[in-house]
Design goal:
Helix content is about 45%, strand content about 15%. By secondary structure, the protein is an alpha/beta fold. It has one domain (about 5-220): Alpha-Beta Barrel (TIM Barrel), CATH 3.20.20.70.
Amino acid sequence: MTAIEGVLTAMVTPFAADGSLDEAAARRLAGHLVDNGSHGLVVAGTTGESPTLSDEEDVRLLRAVKDEVGDRATVICGTGTNDTRHSERLSAAAAENGADAVLVVTPYYNKPNPAGLVAHFTAVAAAAGVPVVVYNIPSRVVVNMPPELLAELGQIENVVAVKQANNDEIGAVEGLDVLAGNDDIFFRCLETGGTGGILVASHVVGNEMREIYDAAKAGDLDRASEIDASIRPVYDALGVTINPIPIKAAVEMLGLCGPTMRLPMVPADDEQRAVVRAALESRGLIPSGTAAG
């Protein structure tokens, strides 16, 4: 099976000015990310505005990115919904169209109990036929999957890892590789034996996050901690408002894609853009004193 490890960037989805999917920009962005630290890419995830993508757009985006990066990077497709049958169909389609793995979020809104969660992930994993990364993000879906439940999910065939976005429960999970689900716990995840992270700041400081990973894997935790501390202002700036608004502004400032977002997400306002711009300027990623637009 494909190894799910390292710096995995949760890629923004580029849209044209009219709101349509911009496949050419997605290709350029994917290539840039792989050239600048990313071991892999996650398409159609939260950062990719997945709630506003149709199934057909998910597949088009996946195929464009996979075609661009080929075997240079792991490509994971977000296929989780709160309808098990829908998640099964989308996971199977992703696998058929080249996904190396799928990312399956805890079903949202309908709030299943533990037995329902086990049944859901069992069905989706069987339909996918490729490695499944379970996505635990209680801040968005209300339901938290504690370590003991995640360990139970780890017994399901094809379920190989968890994207852990509950900062209070970062740590080893029996039977699963653990990936940091938030940038600010990436180093801590590696320090506690995790295999990597599904990250956002790697759009702009991907090389530094790759250095964190490499240093941690080599046992040089002091060096990894030092680099992590140096880029925490970027993490903070990208949290100025809800993801993916700040990172979409950042990649637009870097000339990597346009600023268009699909409602109900709206582009960053002037104050938010100023925070993002200051962080990019401080890293020398854009010239100081450039226009605030």
